[in-house]
Amino acid sequence: MTSTVDSFAELGLSESLLKTLSEIGYETPSPIQAQCIPILLDGHDILGMAQTGTGKTAAFALPLMETIDIKVSKPQALILTPTRELAIQVAEALQSYAKNLPGFHVLPIYGGQSYTIQLKQLARGAHVIVGTPGRVMDHLERKTLNLDHLKTLVLDEADEMLRMGFIDDVEWILEHTPEQHQTALFSATMPEQIRRVAQKYLVEPREIKIKAATATVAAIRQVYWQVSGMHKLDALTRILEVEDDFDAAIIFVRTKTATVELADKLNARGYAAAALNGDLNQQMRERVIDQLKSGALDIVIATDVAARGIDVPRVSHVVNYDIPYDTEAYVHRIGRTGRAGRTGNAILFVAPREIRMLRTIERATRQPIAPLTLPSRADVTNKRVADFKAKVAEVLDAEGLDFFANIVSQLCEEKDVSAEEVAAALAMMAQEGKPLQIAGEDPAPRPFREDRGDDRRPASFGDRERKPRFEDRGERPRFEDRGERSERPRFEDRPPRSERPARPAPAGDMVRYRIDVGREHGVEVRDIVGAIANEAGIESRFIGRIGLYEESSTVELPAGMPAEAANALKRTRVRGVPINLRPDEGRPGGGFSGERKFKKKPFADR
Ligand code: AMP
């Protein structure tokens, strides 16, 4: 790892937080944490270039929590996130870090959620607010959110907020916060507009960037599996089972808790596995490594630090069960295999949101990492059958079968069955508890799409897969339930709406709405899609044709919109203008007063 800091204690965090981190299984700070935490604790502003998976949430959350005065039941920190999913996830992370901070209260506020509930929660008081820009702005305007006690403001995934058309809202919020506060801005990329915001609103910020040092990796077969449709644990055992040259593996996870959990689960599935983490003393650590060397153990589940320097030639596989924080950690991890001239295999599990990290690793190592197709049930069965046959064949070659052949003949005679049937019964007996066929279904294949995905579950607890999305369950498109994880619309990689095939006018399950923003407000189609997707929780692909006119626009949305979402959309702003969404009685280009005189064709119909 790039981090030269081995413990959180070196960073200046309080005893209470250190205790919590140890309890939740964080062993060492990630590089971004090692860099950011001391700077933020010193009160400086930060401009951080970091992506998901680097541990940036804790990097800003931990110092921010040190500043909270529990006795003051007022928002002392505001974290802006581009989506409701991220708002919820960040709030969850803060709540987990507040384990030993009784009375700490963090509140996520986002579009699409009932105002009544939010107002009640705000009135009750919260120390930290995590919210999407539109809804935060709304509460500030209504004076239902008061930032007079604000000490810290965090802009998380600023480039995403820009991409989704929220940058004006973000600037509005920055303009309406008290002067005296610390600001941290995190962004995976640093486009010009974000730099401009940073220059305008950050005070002498320290710039933090995780260096993506180029590194060479030994000749190791590198593959990745995009986590979807199946629990990581099931995927892991499937993969390991069909790997031809499997001998022993080191599996990397992020927390020491996860090392123990995964070791227990693998033991329960019949693997000889053990955890290797920082809680083990030197003697215990050496014992685990010796057992791996001798073959008493086949799998060791380790954290980065605990696995430093392991040199066990029989390690045929390294599995990055949780993605590493940076390239250096990746290179270090996979260097545990392919030793002493043997071939090595490195398997990387990548959640949809971690794709950027995968690409960073590929760039830095200058090597492509090939996608891995998960073995199907049939593949696993075939492998098990092949192994079984090989074992039987070995016995067939052995001496001393006559005695048993005689027993088989007797059985055939006594039971009036064929030798084949007796053999089948014996095979069944031999495989009792070790079925050759696996139960369950193969997950439906899902195309790899870089422009989607919002799997923000803690990577260390990857077994808790997200529930299948509704399209996987074959249901009709619908409005997202509150709190359900959804995909985040990202527009940069997609063809513009106007280039996508035109859809017929709304029929049956689509309804056309009118909104009060148009070209004269400087609005683009993506701004409308971003705002609606976020505020009403409608996946962007279910947003139909958008007609962009001078003063207003039309948008088609699935029928059956719940009142809550409709209300949210009435108040939603695009470029600072309330859109006032309502059913459109007019016809595009003609039915509305503003457009009638122009009779223009929609600018960006699709
Ligand atoms: P983030 O990049 O903030 O989304 O964090 C990614 C994942 O890493 C989350 O599941 C965190 O719980 C986990 N994580 C962050 N920091 C650490 C750490 N120092 N040790 C172990 N896990 C961590």
UniProtKB/TrEMBL annotation:
Region Disordered, residue ranges: 434-511, 579-606
Domain DEAD-box RNA helicase Q intervals: 6-34
One Pfam family linked to the record: DbpA
Keyword Phosphoprotein: no
Keyword Membrane in annotation: no
Cellular compartment(s): Cytoplasm
Domain of life: Bacteria
Keywords recorded for this protein, A-Z: ATP-binding, Cytoplasm, Helicase, Hydrolase, Nucleotide-binding, RNA-binding, Stress response
The EC number(s) this enzyme carries: 3.6.4.13
Catalytic reactions on record: ATP + H2O = ADP + phosphate + H(+)
One CC-aspect GO term: ribosome
Chain intervals with Basic and acidic residues compositional bias: 443-502
Helicase C-terminal domain segment(s): 235-380
GO terms (BP aspect): cellular response to cold; ribosomal large subunit assembly; RNA catabolic process
PANTHER family: ATP-DEPENDENT RNA HELICASE DEAD, DEAD-BOX ATP-DEPENDENT RNA HELICASE 47, MITOCHONDRIAL
Similarity remark: Belongs to the DEAD box helicase family. DeaD/CsdA subfamily.
Function: DEAD-box RNA helicase involved in various cellular processes at low temperature, including ribosome biogenesis, mRNA degradation and translation initiation.
The protein's name in its UniProt record: ATP-dependent RNA helicase DeaD
Phylogenetic lineage: Bacteria, Pseudomonadati, Pseudomonadota, Betaproteobacteria, Rhodocyclales
